[in-house]
Amino acid sequence: MVTEHGIKFGVHLITKHFGKIVAKVCEKLFSHGPLTLDQLVRYTDFTKDQVRNSLLVLVQHNCAQAFVSAPQDDDDDADRLRVRTQYLVLFDNIIHRLRFPKFLDIVSRKLDEECVKLLVGLLRDGRLTLKQMVDRESQGKGKCFVMHIAASTLVEKRKASKFLKELWKDNYLHKKTVPVTGGRPSNICMWKVNKPLLWKYVLDEMYHAALNLSLRMT
């Protein structure tokens, strides 16, 4: 269970990273629990587009999760047939954003600088395809929250696939194949950072440091 000040801190981080509108949507998810798009519109007094875009940001960065809820006992037949998507805020993943520099430090000790650059982009922009990670020109110079990685962190396209596989092989990344509908059927690979594993490494280093300190003091 998230405490009162934990919620305030989480909302503060979202405000700092994504702005006040996204933070307001996040705050309502904290205070009310899982909500639908229409419920969030009602609670926030924002337009549907504002709420939808805020949810896209939160889901893209793995700070919220969408799921289809089961029918309620008091639903009529029409409601039972309707797909009801709700959104759940992920507090631990929001707090993980504070740990990104340490995550990068851990990876940099084992892999080269180009792998770290790709990891920077994935940490900053959430789930991305390979094309999104190497496309410099079509992203409006970094203004698109979903698809850009700043030019300073980009690597050459022909090398990006190799570096992604290195990160994936060492379990620093998750890979998910997503079917694409419309036109010719195809699949794309989405990549995201394995934050729980990196956090495990961070904790292990903290415990190691604490053990060494305790041994010195005895």
TrEMBL record:
Pfam families: HTH_9
Source organism superkingdom: Eukaryota
Keyword Ubl conjugation found: no
GO molecular function: single-stranded DNA binding
The RNA polymerase III subunit RPC82-related helix-turn-helix domain, residue ranges: 11-68
Record-level GO cellular component terms: RNA polymerase III complex
Family assignment from sequence similarity: Belongs to the eukaryotic RPC3/POLR3C RNA polymerase subunit family.
Protein name (record): DNA-directed RNA polymerase III subunit RPC3
Species of provenance: Glycine soja (Wild soybean)
